[in-house]
Amino acid sequence: MVDEEQSNLREALKRVAVTLKESGIPFALAGGYAVWARGGPEPSHDVDFLVAEADAPQVATYLAEHGLQVVQPPEDWLFKVFTDDVMVDVFHRDATIPAERETLADADEIEVISVSMPVLSATRLMIHKLHAIDERYCDFGKLLPVARALREQVAWDQVRKETEENDFAAAFLFLLERLRIID
Question: Which of 42, 66, 70, 87 has its CA 20 to 30 A from that of 56?
C-alpha cells in the first residue's frame, strides 16, 4: 500500500514531468524513481530529473512561469522545484560532469504512473550512482538492491570505463562480481 508521503512524491513526479514535457526541452527522470521505473525499489525521499546544463536556466524559468516554485540552493549543480510542499530536484551535473543533451538521448520513453516520460538508461543510472560514492557517502547497502534490480539492463563494461577513476566505484563493482551479481 502506498503511504501518504509516497503518494505525494508520485503526484509531484507527474506534475513536474508533464510540465517538463510541455516545455519541449529535453529532460529525463533520474535517481531513485528512474530506478523504480526500471524495476528497482521505490524511493521514499525525493524525485530527481536531469536536464542539460545549457538548458537549466530556461527550464527553471519555464517551471516557475507555469506555477511551480523554483528555488536555487547554494549548490550550483541543481535547482529545487516545490509543488504542494513536495520537493523535486532538477539537476544538470553528475558529480562534476555537466549534463549534455547527448546524455538525455540515452533515455527511454517509459510509462511511469500513467505518464509517458523519458527515463535515464539503467547504465547511466548506475554510472550516476557510482559517481556519487566517496569517503563521505559510501553506503553499498543502498546500492546493492539497485544493482540487483537493474543488472540485466546495464552495460557493465561502460559503467567500469566511465567510473574507473573512482576507487569506491571500483570496490563496489568488485563486490558485485564476488557476489555473482555481475560477471
Answer: 42
Cα(35)–Cα(29) distance, integer angstroms: 9
What is the DSSP annotation of 132-177? T-SSS---HHHHHHHHHHHGGG--HHHHHHHHTT-HHHHHHHHHHH
Locate the domains of the chain by residue range: 1-120, 121-183
What confidence tens digit (pLDDT) does each residue in 34-66 have? Answer: 999 999 988 878 899 999 999 999 999 999 999
- pTM for the whole thing? 0.93
Q: Is the dihedral of CA 120, 166, 155, 42 positive or negative?
A: negative
What does the alpha-carbon distance between residue 80 and residue 90 come to, in Å, rounded to a whole number? 6
Q: Are strands 47-51 and 86-91 parallel, antiparallel or unpaired?
A: parallel
> What are the phi and psi torsion angles at 33 (to 5°)?
-75, -30
